[in-house]
Amino acid sequence: MISITIDGKNVEVPSGSTVLEAARQAGVHIPTLCDHPSLKPYGGCRLCVVEVEGMRTLQASCTLPVNQGMVVHTQTPRVTRARQFVLDLIFSERNHFCMYCQKTGGDCELQNAAYELDMTHWPLQPGWSPFPVDASNPYFVFDHNRCILCRRCVRACAELVGVSTLGVENRGASSMVVADYGLPIGESTCVSCGVCVQICPTGALIDRTSAYLGKEVTASRVADICLGCSLGCGIELLVHEDRVLRVDGDWSAPVSGGVICERGRYHSLTDEQERLHTPLVRRNGRLTPTGWEDALEEVARRLRPLRGAGQNGVAALASTRLPAEALNAFAQLFREALGSPVVTSSEEDRFLPGPFERLDNRLLDLEEAGCVLALQADLFASHPSAGFYLRRGLSAGGKLVLIDAQENSMAEVADVYARPQPGSEAALIQGILQAAAELGLLDSDLAPSAGSLSGVSRTTGVSAETIAAAARHIAPAHNLLIVFGSGLGDETAQALRTLAEIFEAKLFSPLGGANSRAAQQYCLKQPFTPAGCHAVYIALGDDQPAPDLLERVRDVPFLAVQASYASPLTEAADVVLPVETWTEQEGHYLNLEGRLQKTARATTAPAGVRSNLEVLDALAQAVGVKINPDWEAALFPDSPVTTGREP
Amino acid sequence: MAKPKISSDWLAGCAGCHMSLLDIDERIVEIAELADLRAMPITDLKEPDEDGVDVGILEGGVNNSANEEVAHRMRSRCKILVALGDCAVFGGVPAMRNFFEMNEALRRAYVETESTDEEGRIPDDPELARMEKTRALHEVVPVDVFVPGCPPDPDVIYYVLNELAQGRIPEIKDEKLHWH
What residues of chain B, 99 to 128, have a C-beta less than 8 Å from chain A? Predict the structure, then answer.
């Protein structure tokens, strides 16, 4: 530990801390612009300069490591003049028009820094040369007139997201933040994750949807969980007048640490679907609005006689966007109480892990693995934020060996990319083991005999060089992680399992939607086969129905749907029950890691709409069955529980 | 003792700052009792008194030779000069014209406008003011008090007038400085 003195206060900090960190610990305020808690210190803006006794020049406190006995002064006239000069120069470089900027009035860190120094005008006027405005991305605008070149966006794109699309070209007054080699950002390698927009201190990067709709400083922030996929990234909803303005990543969340993706940040707000407000019952061929009692009784009346009706019973399907509380009620009502022959989730049997006793499914493994072997999994497309963990790992020196017969967007960053003939994956895996043995990287009696490598090459269509290259990365790897998707096939899964055992690899399978893991634990994992059933009940929630779902239930005599939004499915239904959306509900979600998280109620549901759980409970009551509400006990019959936010 | 004299004028501005001044509502009576309101766009007098006023207030940026003359005249006839509003303090919205060539801007205004039905002509009468790059007031004359805002809040303007009317220099900071 090191002791230093800041403005007369003594403070003790670990060796390696910066003066800025020590100041914050001591409660001393030092203004900053380019600094951000999630990024490595940069020292670019020089606003945080301080006087250090014994040092001739002023020092940037964000990058200066502490030294035993250092004496620091943060409020001297020399420091104040320097801060003033830094701001004078920043304002003089580009075109800062506060009066029509979306960030004015509290949300702009540059404006706030100027206010802190009582700046009423610009002693140095700008030269008024115009800077470009890049409006090529559908979600945000990059106005270079407002950019202060703090590089937070560049650093976030590299350090947090790992895509490194943004960079700075030229020098001095000609410096410009660019995408790739100077492409419009909407045509570049940008993945539209929006992390740069969130981290920008000024109005240079502006979120389109929330612009002018309310200030961050007057809106409420609600910590929540994204339901876009099985990760459950921590998010913060910006809510103003009972309306969600924007989705921000939660920098302090244990899942993703604020680095969320396009789907979670933008898709949940930019779609415009018709909301259902009242229960509907089909009478004389037309869906007519009615009361809850009537609608529930209409469903109950049709379900009661199907109790114990075997193959002709009711087929039930629930979306994995439903909370655990509702999934538990759903499973009990249909499987146990009504004896339904088909009770499953919207993912059916797609994401079952196969012959693996347990999956590690630890997101940090993606980042820490010395080598990741990915088989038939495209994280960048299916679970982008998991993809960011992987990208960060690759930036730190990790390797990626990708095996996929189909096109896979991870190919662009893979160190080895093998496209075997579909069905020959097991042979390829055995070939890799064989190659490892031949290269002396593996005890040959551990590798199952796969014939000659050229034979494997002929069977799989993958060259011997590629197979050997894969072996060279995999065999000696520290912390090998195997990532696999769904639909593996038994032979392939077995081969993978053997490889995992030989190299003591950890396993990762991203599963599907928000509550996939909970759905599996509630045994909602059969294929959906409604043929022969006399009724179908779909607990859709605020999900969109799969394009082929309507076709699959068309011939069933009775269809009831609980949903938030109108769709061709609800339009074909006999009874429609309106339910809450994700921002209106409170409920628990088990993410792919087995981490139990809870959504928060951020907005008010329209009058007349009920929660998914309330509807299932009411239905159970109408049918005359009891449901055990202890969703948690049923969720973890054997395994330990991980709850809430952990450091 | 004679009441302090206050005069104001506007340059390349939208008059919004003076509208905000009028938004001090009935408090203008108070100000009129403390100070002598001389030539202003809202009074009948045309120029600041030749023998000088105590406080001069200018709204708007300086974007032509006429603005420059008015700015110099006000500066020479007042003891304390106040730049009122973002245009006077920074250049403001009129300064956006600086991004274009003067010819481009004049063509857009007089020839290419949608409402021009005959062949447009850029006015070139020698008596017209000469267009210049838009500048903040303090780039042309020394300014004593800066009151930013677009427009500044009426409460801030009342505070400024009240202070000046009682012989004090107003301090624009914290809530008075912040955008709302």
Answer: 99
